[in-house]
């Protein structure tokens, strides 16, 4: 089941996908990892796993449209059945999201629809939330607004910092992202008219 993973940073979610596929828990083939940042540590993780890597520096493009078109072309050469955004810190154009509609997932560190955008952990603490978490969702043109597939939550404890909360949320990410990808690869997830459907039949 060919997939392409897009990253901008550490790539711990990418690592979770690599590990689970090596362990035979996840039947995917990561054809390529693409980063918009040359320094992203996730590129090292990909190389260590013998995965093709590409760096596409958004600063080399004069518009979002041109960058997304080039990105789309690179992804399309691999003919993936799923595009996985794993810490890819770019706002995507409508054309790009339409092209991969129903076959592109993102993971966002909040219990959507709460806390779209950045600094989610600090904002949740500042608002005295009792809990926080992470969401896997299909990507739609509007940022962090696509249909949610799976969420996991954790308590915000007394004295919690953005760092301690981020660490707890990350460990949840590494469970629910591979699981969502597994469901998609098993054809148990579908997307229709902006909604996510889960097929629970055995
Ligand atoms: C994660 O917190 C994810 O929810 C967000 O970006 C971060 C990526 O972390 N979209 P990593 O690069 O996978 O370690």
From TrEMBL:
It catalyses: N(1)-(5-phospho-beta-D-ribosyl)glycinamide + (6R)-10-formyltetrahydrofolate = N(2)-formyl-N(1)-(5-phospho-beta-D-ribosyl)glycinamide + (6S)-5,6,7,8-tetrahydrofolate + H(+). It comes from Marinomonas sargassi. Catalyzes the transfer of a formyl group from 10-formyltetrahydrofolate to 5-phospho-ribosyl-glycinamide (GAR), producing 5-phospho-ribosyl-N-formylglycinamide (FGAR) and tetrahydrofolate. It holds the Pfam family Formyl_trans_N. One of its GO terms (molecular function) is phosphoribosylglycinamide formyltransferase activity. This is Phosphoribosylglycinamide formyltransferase. Belongs to the GART family. N(1)-(5-phospho-beta-D-ribosyl)glycinamide binds at residues 11-13. The gene is purN.
């Amino acid at each position: 089941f060919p997939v392409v993973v897009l990253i901008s940073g550490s790539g711990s979610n990418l690592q979770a996908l690599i590990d689970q596929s090596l362990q035979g828990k996840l039947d995917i083939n990561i054809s390529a990892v693409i980063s918009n940042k040359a320094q992203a540590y996730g590129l090292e993780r990909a190389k260590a796993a013998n995965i093709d890597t590409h760096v596409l520096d958004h600063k080399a493009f004069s518009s979002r449209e041109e960058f997304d078109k080039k990105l789309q072309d690179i992804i399309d050469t691999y003919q993936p059945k799923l595009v996985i955004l794993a810490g890819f810190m770019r706002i995507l154009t409508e054309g790009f999201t339409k092209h991969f509609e129903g076959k592109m997932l993102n993971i966002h560190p909040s219990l959507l629809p709460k806390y779209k955008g950045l600094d989610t952990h600090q904002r949740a603490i500042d608002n005295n939330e009792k809990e926080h978490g992470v969401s896997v969702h299909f990507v739609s043109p509007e940022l962090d607004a696509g249909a949610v597939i799976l969420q996991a939550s954790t308590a915000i404890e007394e004295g919690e910092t953005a760092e301690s909360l981020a660490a707890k949320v990350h460990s949840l990410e590494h469970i629910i992202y591979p699981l969502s990808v597994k469901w998609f690869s098993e054809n148990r997830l579908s997307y229709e008219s902006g909604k996510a459907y889960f097929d629970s039949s055995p």
